[in-house]
Amino acid sequence: MDHLLLPAHRRTSLGKIVDHIRRARRVPAVVYGHGVESRPLEIEAGVFSKLYKQAGSTSLVDLVVDDEKPVKVLIHDVQRHPTSQEIMHADLYQVRMTEKIEAEIELQFVGESPAVKESGGVFVRALDKLKVSCLPGDLVPSIAIDISTLKTFEDRIYLKDVKLPPGLTPLIGGDEVVASVMQPRSEAELEALSGEVKEDVATVEVEKKGKTDEEEVVESTES
Q: Domain 101-182 falls in which CATH fold?
């Protein structure tokens, strides 16, 4: 990945006053870390949005605050507006390159499973991300997992089968299932499932009708 640079400015506006920062198309942010004093910042919204798409939460970024020297950070958390999805705030974590951190790495499943392609099975992801411990310099954007080993419905990919990039230590056990293929439902199973749905619908309609009849009786009695 290309060198990632994030320019920022010191922020003096705090609390509800930050609304004018957002109206000026800037993102309120804070940088903090182990042994690092927390500092409020503001970042150009367009610049931050573009960089966040590239970096995600597992790529090191050089943060430059005004005329200071760059420091290595990770984008730890991003808060968005619930409706517009506009970025409202960002947390930046300043790392020490000699100190291990914990991070969640995205899993990317590559290749084709014979159990899916030839037998019509359904691919099942047991994990989407893997939590690891590592030095900041060992972070990777994602971990590729080849699913071509899933040849039957009994096959499983366990974490211990995955070749992890150097320096990454998983924080879950090696016997954890990462992926598998589920056998497709038979016609008999689909028909049985369809019958259950019809029965449920019929039951709801009967209950609804019974409730309506009771309401009519009550109204008649009251009148």
A: RNA Polymerase Alpha Subunit; Chain A, domain 2 (2.170.120)
